[in-house]
């Protein structure tokens, strides 16, 4: 409905942070991990705004979306993306970064003056513009194989020969942790970062950017001491706001002057209720067009559509919770009812007694709660802030849905989707108990 909504100021600020961090921001060179719920515009922002801006500043960008790239395993997809980029660079004629910037930035809405004010090229990058054709001492097609150069050696050579920053962006980065090969490759990328960034004299830097929708797993990639990128910068994805809503309404009105649209305030309220998800918001506007009599009271009708979608989407999001079993649901209930900034003491005596009471058991052990908590984390329902920090619901939208569905004292335990439930919704006795 609306086409691509660009966020030039945010893109320019992120590019500046990655390529020209201040003395107080150099932690970003350890890596930047971004996380946020699905369908909130993360990948669109990266591919349509951030990458063109970074490339316009003279950096080499390697990008791979682990949910879309061709290949069997995440590590194979990542290596394929590296080989493709190296193939593009090999034998490439020098090109003025300024000329390239002009065409790239015009699409996003960033002026040359804004670009120069934020990111004046350092001397080593200015010198790279006049370099000759790029030639490698390795076969790009064999990088990462037993017969070819290692990933680390290949990227180090690129860095030395070009003097340019290398920004490695992995979308849905949590997929790298699915098996041992992905974990090993993350360790190699960390070693590549250390080798390139520790060069002597003026040089380009290697910056790793991980983006993911599983906030719990993405957070652990920087918070766990055993993780390759432990200590890297981790941030939540900045959600879209009023300017996006205004953009959609303006575009819809321009396309069809007779379109039935809510006021901007009602539209923004609906957008927030739907978890600031562009797809759901535009779907709600589409439903408004098909609703008879909506033109008489568009704000009221739109509010009804949004609330119906909210309830439906909430049930979809919470369906996986009911499949986990009774104890995970009881733990999740305690987290939801706690402070929005997070809950501690999930294994304390009063918590264990509460779980036992809800489940009708004599006792619930700490080990059982730990298993339940791990199941919630694996399902991207909850996350811990830091090694021993408070636990929060991963997506505020899901927390709000749960609270809304339980606002009248409904049971914390939904047994409708669980195995062992008969037609009369009675729990079938478990002979192993």
Give the strand order of the largest sheet, numbering strands 1, 2, ... along the chain: 2-3-4-1-5
Question: Count of DSSP helices?
Answer: 17
CATH architecture of the largest domain: 3-Layer(aba) Sandwich
By CATH's scheme, which homologous superfamily of the largest domain applies?
Answer: P-loop containing nucleotide triphosphate hydrolases
- End-to-end gap: 55 Å
Structural class: alpha/beta
Descriptive labels:
single chain; 433 residues; alpha/beta; Rossmann fold; five-stranded parallel sheet; two-stranded antiparallel ribbon; 17 helices; globular
Characterize the structure shown.
The protein is α/β, with parallel strands linked by helices and 433 residues long. The chain has two domains: 8-236, P-loop containing nucleotide triphosphate hydrolases (Rossmann fold), CATH 3.40.50.300; 242-316. The protein is built from 17 helices and seven strands. It has helices at residues 8-19, 42-56, 74-89, 97-108, 112-118, 123-128, 151-162, 180-197, 215-223, 242-255, 264-273, 278-289, 298-324, 326-337, 349-359, 366-378, 396-405, and strands spanning 32-35, 60-65, 166-171, 206-212, 233-236, 382-384, 391-393. The strands form two sheets. The chain has a five-stranded parallel beta sheet, sandwiched between helices. A hairpin with a 6-residue loop joins strand 6 and strand 7. Helix 1 crosses helix 2. The chain is globular, with a radius of gyration of 25 Å. The protein starts with 7 loop residues before the first helix and ends in a 28-residue tail after the last helix. Mean pLDDT is 87; it is low at 418-433.
């Amino acid at each position: 409905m609306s086409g691509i909504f660009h966020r030039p100021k945010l893109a320019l600020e992120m590019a500046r942070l990655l390529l020209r961090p201040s003395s107080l921001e150099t932690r970003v060179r350890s890596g930047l991990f971004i996380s946020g719920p699905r369908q909130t515009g993360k990948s669109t922002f990266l591919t349509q705004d951030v990458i063109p801006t970074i490339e316009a500043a003279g950096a080499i960008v390697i990008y791979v979306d682990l949910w879309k790239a061709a290949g069997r395993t995440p590590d194979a997809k990542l290596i394929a993306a590296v080989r493709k980029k190296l193939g593009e660079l090999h034998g490439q004629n020098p090109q003025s970064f300024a000329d390239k910037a002009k065409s790239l930035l015009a699409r996003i809405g960033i002026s040359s003056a804004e670009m120069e004010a934020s990111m004046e090229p350092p001397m080593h990058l200015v010198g790279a513009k006049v370099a000759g054709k790029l030639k490698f001492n390795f076969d790009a097609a064999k990088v990462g194989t037993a017969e070819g150069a290692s990933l680390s050696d290949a990227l180090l050579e690129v860095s030395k020969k070009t003097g340019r920053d290398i920004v490695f962006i992995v979308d849905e980065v949590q997929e790298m942790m699915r098996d041992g090969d992905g974990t090993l490759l993350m360790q190699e990328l960390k070693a590549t970062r250390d080798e390139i960034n520790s060069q002597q004299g003026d040089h380009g830097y290697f910056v790793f950017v991980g983006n993911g929708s599983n906030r719990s797993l993405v957070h652990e990639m920087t918070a766990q001491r055993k993780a390759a990128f432990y200590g890297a910068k981790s941030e939540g994805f900045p959600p879209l706001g009023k300017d996006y809503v205004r953009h959609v309404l303006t575009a819809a009105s321009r396309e069809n002057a007779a379109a039935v649209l809510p006021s901007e305030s009602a539209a923004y309220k609906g957008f927030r209720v739907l978890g600031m998800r562009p797809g759901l918001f535009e779907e709600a506007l589409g439903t408004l067009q098909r609703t008879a009599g909506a033109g008489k009271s568009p704000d009221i009708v739109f509010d009804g559509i949004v609330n119906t979608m909210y309830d439906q989407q909430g049930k979809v999001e919470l369906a996986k919770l009911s499949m986990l079993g009774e104890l995970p649901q009881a733990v999740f209930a305690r987290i939801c009812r706690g402070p929005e900034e997070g809950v501690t003491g999930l294994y304390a005596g009063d918590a264990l007694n509460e779980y036992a009471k809800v489940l009708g058991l004599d006792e619930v052990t700490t080990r059982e709660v730990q298993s339940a908590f791990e199941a919630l984390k694996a399902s991207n329902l909850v996350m811990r802030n830091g090694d021993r920090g408070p636990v929060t619901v991963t997506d505020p939208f899901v927390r709000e849905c749960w609270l809304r569905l339980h606002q009248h004292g409904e049971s914390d335990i939904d047994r409708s989707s669980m195995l062992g439930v008969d037609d009369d919704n009675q729990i079938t006795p478990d002979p192993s108990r």
